[in-house]
Specification:
The chain is mainly α. Helix 4 packs antiparallel against helix 5, helix 6 packs antiparallel against helix 7 and helix 7 packs antiparallel against helix 8. The longest helix is centred in the N-terminal third of the chain and has 61 residues.
């Protein structure tokens, strides 16, 4: 404002200069102020809206779990499916889809389980979950007899903490296909990936396969704990 009135000697001239400047720039200032305040209010409204939406989704998820526990069976699956369909844009939908797939596996509905995992491959935005999703999907595909697809799914797993499990499942698939040498190699890779913390089932598979022929049987591929 000082720059505006510099060069004007009298107070009246200074007032006239301020009026002229305001006439030329006042509207711009008002618009800028309104936009700034609107942006601030809009951001606050957005934050409050997001928090409110998350709280509602959390409560809905909790309510759904209670209903699923009460209903059980196919009715429980149907309740979970409805929640998943209505919450594909938030993390509670991802959690519900994982639970739905687990329940479907326990009820031997492998097609439904696979559908959930395939959807999760594209829906999930939390990278650390990708390895878990692909591991469980591969197990379900193996149960459906889709061995080639299961091996392709396992190839997507690069997380070191999941390599032992991935190779263990791969070994079991090769056994089902009668590919003993490939099974031995996969189980060896699984053992190596454990870095000394070998799962007892994996150790049993590896030991049994070391000196037996075609009659060897694989341990179950499915493991809903991981």
């Amino acid at each position: 404002m000082v720059d505006i009135i510099e060069g004007y000697e009298t107070e009246e001239q200074q007032v006239d200069a301020i009026k002229q400047w305001w006439k030329e720039n006042g509207n711009t200032l008002i618009i800028a102020a309104v936009v700034g305040l609107a942006g601030l209010w809009g951001w606050r409204f957005y934050n409050e809206s997001v928090i409110s939406s998350q709280e509602e989704a959390s409560q809905a998820y909790t309510d759904t779990l209670v209903k699923v526990e009460q209903l059980g069976g196919e009715a429980g699956l149907a309740e979970l499916q409805t929640f998943v369909a209505n919450n594909q844009d938030n993390n509670y939908g991802v959690l519900a889809a994982l639970l739905l797939a687990k329940e479907a596996v326990e009820q031997k509905d492998f097609a439904l389980a696979k559908a959930q995992f395939v959807q999760l491959q594209t829906q999930n935005e939390y990278a650390p979950l990708n390895a878990l999703i692909n591991l469980r999907l591969a197990r379900v595909e193996a149960e459906l007899g889709e061995y080639s697809q299961a091996l392709q799914t396992l190839a997507l797993i690069t997380d070191e903490s999941f390599l032992a499990k991935a190779n263990q499942v791969k070994g079991s698939i090769y056994l089902k296909q009668g590919e003993l040498e490939k099974a031995r190699s996969a189980f060896q890779d699984a053992v190596n990936a454990t870095q000394g913390n070998i799962d007892p089932v994996l150790q049993l598979q590896f030991d049994d396969l070391a000196g037996v022929g075609e009659a060897v049987m694989a341990a179950p591929i499915l493991d809903t704990e991981k």
